[in-house]
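Researcher: Structure prediction, please.
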Amino acid sequence: MDVVKRVHVVPVGYEFDRVLEPIRDQRADLVYLLEHDSDATERTEVDGVSPEARAEYHEKLHSELESVVPEVRSRRCDLHDVYAVLGSVTTIASTHADDSVYVNVSSAGTIAAIGATIACMDVSTDAHAYYVEPSTYAHDGKAEPSSFGVEQTETIPTYPIESPTRDQVAILGFLREPSAWGGFDDARTAPPKKKDLIEYARDCGLSFMADRRPPEERASEDKGAFRVLDAHVLDPLVEDGYVTVESVGRRRVVELTEQGENAYRAFKHKLTDGA
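Model: Predicted structure follows.
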């Protein structure tokens, strides 16, 4: 029988007690540290903290955590990008679908907090957000952690939201990659038609096309396939602002929006974990 692990996910800013104490108190079995990833800032200040202070802080935090937790893993993540944080948290939570996953939303600033909280709202992500209230705040986060002590740890109430389905994420990925539909870097062809999406869905065995007859068995154009595509994929994606569908001559072409690009980044793990 598999043992359920207590997994903590912690974006790492410049906190110490707010990271360590909840993990110690809840006797976590595994901790993921989301550490800021940006090559351009490795030799410069980040949020006012020098590279030397940042390195010393990370080393001390790792050392303390490893003394109280059986396993600590680091994952690079752009903590200044909401969707990068969202994607990292949902991916980790998906990997640990059978474990109890807790996410610290108070350890790395506002942007990371937003991404982590939204991740916990996703109905396909069974993760619990928590906020740590410190005893005192530091006067100068450049020379010391941003706060000291822990007053209390509170579970954050979240409101369920629906993320894109696996089929919808697959279509976003198809639209994102020009070579998948004949586009080119310098001279892209016209955006793909709905027919292109249907053919891609059949080739990949996407579930919304699973019960449709293959082209060679159809006596005429399968108009029902277009209705299924609209109902299960395109209409929800258009409503969420992830794609646009426009008429160009007699063609109905589909294009990915910037919001759709971000959604793909956040939920692409669904293509590998079967969610």
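Model: The chain has a mean pLDDT of 82.
Researcher: Thanks, that helps.
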